[in-house]
Amino acid sequence: SDRSAGKLIAQTAGSEGYDIIGFQECDDRWRILGDAKAEGLQGDWEALDGGRAIALMYRKDRFTFLDSGKEDVGEDSQKQYYGKRSAHWVRLRHSDGNTVFYINHHGPLPVSSGGGCTGSATSHNIMRVIASHAHKGDAIILTGDFNAEPSSSRIQELSKRLNKVYSGTSMGGVDHIFSNCKHDAHGSNL
User: How is residue 118 annotated by DSSP?
Assistant: First the structure.
């Protein structure tokens, strides 16, 4: 609708711009990218489809593609069922020689529920994907709408294994960023 997502990305990119962007509930990554570029987003971008309405984009003028994939890591409860939930990842080598493993996720519903594949099992499955595909020395960045508040078992389990560097405030704080890096990060709900 009126390029709102693309406008928001272009308006918040700042002077350095974004390197990697993760999307949830996104069926047309190319439209979002086109809208953002029409609104002034700079750079040469690649957009990857993660299936199940998740996607990611990265700057091709800053990164070399190494590998990518997607795996189911959870499933909605029968109480609020839309289907299985995936983790979508990419390994990229930055122009400075450092490698990043970026993983994007849209978590199971209902929000913050436990049991089955909605609670801590989802977190364990995400960590399995990271362990299977990230390499020693990679900077790991995990982002997403986890459909889980900070106090949920899903987020508590991930916090035992990765540094939680940001939690949003929308819907009780269901958006999170995790990393294996131990430095300050800044983010905002867009």
Answer: T
Q: List the one residue out of 76, 72, 108, 109 whose CA is nearest residue 88.
A: 72
Burial of 19 (0-12, 13-18, 19+ CB in 10 A): middle
Q: Please, how many CA atoms are within 13 Å of residue 74, restricted to the half-sphere of its CB? A: 34
pLDDT digits (tens, 9 = 90+) for 14-43: 888 999 999 999 999 999 999 999 999 999
Say whether 17 sits in a helix, a strand or coil.
coil
C-alpha distance from residue 186 to each of 135, 163, 164 (Å): 25, 13, 12
Which one-letter amino acid corresponds to residue 79?
K
Please state, rounded to an integer, the average pLDDT across all residues of the chain: 91
CA distances to 6, 35, 36, 133 from 40, rounded to whole Å, are: 9, 9, 6, 34
Residue 186 scores a pLDDT above 70: no
Helix (H) or strand (E) holding 46: strand 45-49
